[in-house]
Write a structure and sequence with these properties.
alpha+beta; 3-stranded antiparallel β-sheet; globular; binds FE2/S2 (inorganic) cluster
Length: 282
C-alpha cells in the first residue's frame, strides 16, 4: 500500500482538466498501454505565448492521474518558455511528493510536456536515441543517464522507480548497474577537490558567476538578479524585473541558478530567494 499525500489523493479523486482540446496548439503523447502507463497532454496557447488551457487523458495508477492533473494545473497561465522549465521533480514537489516507487509517473508527465512543446514549436521531439538497455520498457542508456544525473540516483531500484527500466524480467539489471558504476566513477574523477575559500573569495566568485553565467540568461526574459547576502553556505538573492514575483521563480532558482552556483563555485552552496510580498504569473 503506497503512502500518498493529501494533495495526491485530491488530484487522483478530483482530477483537474480531464479531456482533450480539439484544436490544441501542443500535443504530447507518451507511454503505451503495454507498459501500463500512457498519457496524452494537449494545450492551447493564447496571447504572449501563455498557455490558456491544458487537458490530459491518462491510463495508469493513482500517481499517474495525480501527476497529469498537477501538470495541467502547473502549466496553465505559464508562458511556453516557463512551462519548458518544469521538471519531473517540480511536478512531484507540487503534489507534496510521490512515493519513490511512483516517480516514473512524474517523469511521464515531464516527457509529455516536452513532446507537446516540441509539437507547438514545430520541431521534431528529440527523444534521446541511445542504445536500448531495457527491452521490456524500451528504455535507452541515454534516458537512464538523464534520470541518474537529474535526480541523483544511486541504485538500480532508484532507476526502476524513475524510468521503469529493470522493473520487468530483470535481464537488464546488470547493464543498469554498469551505467551507474561508470557514472559514479566518472563523477568522482571529475569532481575537483573542493577549494577552501574565505567568505570574501566566495562572494567574489559568486558575483562573477552571476554576471557572466546567470544574469545574461535572465536578462533575455527581461529579468535580473541581485546578490543580497551570504550566510555560511546559503546565498540570499532577490530576483528583479520580469523574474520578480514570477510563479516559476522557484524552478529558476533551484534548477538553473543553484545548479550553476553548485557547479561553478561550490557544491555545498544553496540559493534562497529573499521573501516576496506577492506572487503573480509573468
Ligand atoms: S529487459 Fe529490463 S526488465 Fe526486462
Amino acid at each position: 500500500m503506497w503512502e500518498y499525500t493529501d494533495k495526491v489523493k485530491d488530484h487522483f479523486l478530483n482530477p483537474r482538466n480531464v479531456g482533450v482540446i480539439e484544436d490544441a496548439d501542443g500535443i504530447g503523447e507518451v507511454g503505451s498501454l503495454s507498459c501500463g502507463d500512457a498519457l496524452k497532454l494537449t494545450f492551447k496557447v493564447g496571447e504572449n505565448e501563455k498557455i490558456i488551457d491544458a487537458k490530459f487523458q491518462t491510463f495508469g495508477c493513482a500517481s499517474a492521474i495525480a501527476s497529469s492533473s498537477a501538470l495541467t494545473e502547473i502549466i496553465r497561465g505559464l508562458t511556453v518558455d516557463d512551462a519548458a522549465k518544469v521538471t519531473n521533480d517540480y511536478i512531484a514537489k507540487y503534489l507534496g511528493d510521490l512515493p519513490k516507487e511512483k516517480m516514473h509517473c512524474s517523469v511521464m508527465g515531464r516527457d509529455a510536456l516536452e513532446k507537446a512543446i516540441a509539437h507547438y514549436r514545430g520541431i521534431p521531439y528529440q527523444k534521446p536515441e541511445g542504445e536500448i538497455v531495457c527491452e521490456c520498457f524500451g528504455v535507452t542508456d541515454l534516458e537512464i543517464n538523464r534520470a541518474i544525473t537529474e535526480n541523483s540516483l544511486t541504485s538500480v531500484e532508484d532507476v526502476t522507480d524513475f524510468v521503469k527500466a529493470g522493473g520487468g524480467c530483470g535481464n537488464c539489471v546488470e547493464k543498469i548497474q554498469e551505467i551507474i558504476d561508470t557514472m559514479q566513477g566518472k563523477e568522482r574523477s571529475e569532481k575537483k577537490k573542493p577549494q577552501k575559500m574565505t567568505n570574501i573569495q566566495k562572494i567574489k566568485l559568486i558575483e562573477e558567476i552571476l554576471e557572466q553565467e546567470i544574469k545574461p540568461v535572465l536578462k533575455k526574459d527581461g529579468g535580473n538578479i541581485e546578490l543580497i547576502d551570504l550566510d555560511e553556505n546559503t546565498i540570499y538573492v532577490k530576483l528583479r524585473g520580469a523574474c520578480a514575483n514570477c510563479m516559476t521563480s522557484q524552478v529558476t532558482i533551484k534548477n538553473f541558478i543553484e545548479n550553476k552556483i553548485k557547479e561553478l563555485v561550490s557544491p555545498e552552496l544553496n540559493v534562497k530567494e529573499v521573501k516576496r510580498e506577492t506572487t503573480h504569473i509573468c
